[in-house]
Specification:
Elements lengths: L4 H9 L4 E5 L18 E6 L15 E5 L7 E3 L20 E8 L1 H6 L4 E2 L1 H11 L7 E5 L21 E2 L1 H11 L3 E4 L7 H4 L8 H8 L3 E4 L12 E6 L8 E3 L1 E7 L2
Parallel strand pairs: 5-7, 6-8, 7-9, 9-10
Antiparallel strand pairs: 1-13, 2-3, 4-10, 4-12, 5-11, 11-13
Helix pairs in contact: 4-6
Length: 256
């Protein structure tokens, strides 16, 4: 008799004891994305033909999409910033599922759009919820996905959006050995860092990729996920030489 334990586990996870939360923006020309990218373009290659099946030249619809690698909800892999880093085809299937930790700083980000998540914030979270587990995916909830413009520019066009302090990411890697991070804005680092003159603009993103981790940007619906106890599942193409790609990710959460 075959061991059906995994099948039973799937049945359990799909029961009312759990909820499944889509953490992904719909992919379209209107999808929130980094300001430097063009909107997704869709070109119709074949369309449903009229007439009887015998007359049909193309009884299906096929579309060719053109989209930037870091468009919408997307995964960044080490090669995005490091030529010798792993590409998308080198990311193992074991790296597509993690325990999910959600650090909620949405109130702070509402009060201060330039909010930066620090080591002290992580330690305060642990004092309330317990130690961040090894191999976890740590998501920074800001509720930024609700913004009509991720850059949130002021009257002078200067962007204001929250992000990670590099030291916080470094602490998560070196002290907790986490597996990945994620956030809702289009950058890892806050806007006042990415726009700072005379400095490398992406220290946090540079670091997380340099230490051979992946990250997900432009996430959504983290406000529907509890701080602890959930899983995150990630899917993207096994793209040779790929630096990143639009991603479908979701959380499986216990229902209180």
């Amino acid at each position: 008799m075959a061991n059906l334990t995994l099948w039973e586990q799937i049945k359990e996870l799909k029961s009312p004891k759990y909820k499944w939360v889509d953490l992904t923006h719909e992919l379209s020309p209107e999808t929130p994305h980094w300001f430097g990218f063009k909107p997704l373009q869709a070109d119709l290659l074949f369309d449903y033909a009229e007439g009887t099946p015998e007359d049909m030249m193309a009884p299906m619809r096929c579309i060719q999409y053109s989209v930037a690698s870091q468009y919408g909800t997307h995964t960044d892999v080490p090669r995005h910033f490091w030529g010798s880093g792993r590409d998308m085809s080198a990311i193992t299937v074991q790296e597509l599922m993690y325990p999910l930790v959600v650090i909620d700083k949405s109130a702070e980000c509402a009060a201060n759009p330039d909010f930066m998540l620090t080591v002290d914030d992580l330690k305060a979270w642990e004092a309330q919820y317990g130690r961040i587990p090894e191999g976890a995916f740590v998501a920074f909830r800001s509720d930024w996905y609700k913004k009509p413009n991720l850059d949130n520019p002021d009257e002078n066009g200067v962007p204001h959006y929250p992000g990670w302090d590099k030291a916080a990411i470094q602490w998560l890697v070196e002290e907790r050995n986490i597996g990945a991070i994620g956030h809702e804005p289009a950058d890892t680092d806050p806007g006042f860092v990415t726009t700072k003159e005379g400095a490398y603009p992406y220290p946090g993103e540079q670091y997380i990729l340099q230490v051979d981790r992946i990250q997900i940007e432009v996430m959504r619906n983290l406000d529907q996920v509890p701080p602890v106890g959930s899983l995150i599942v990630i899917g993207f193409p096994k793209l040779k030489d790929g630096t990143g790609f639009p991603t479908r990710c979701f959380a499986i959460c216990p229902v209180d």
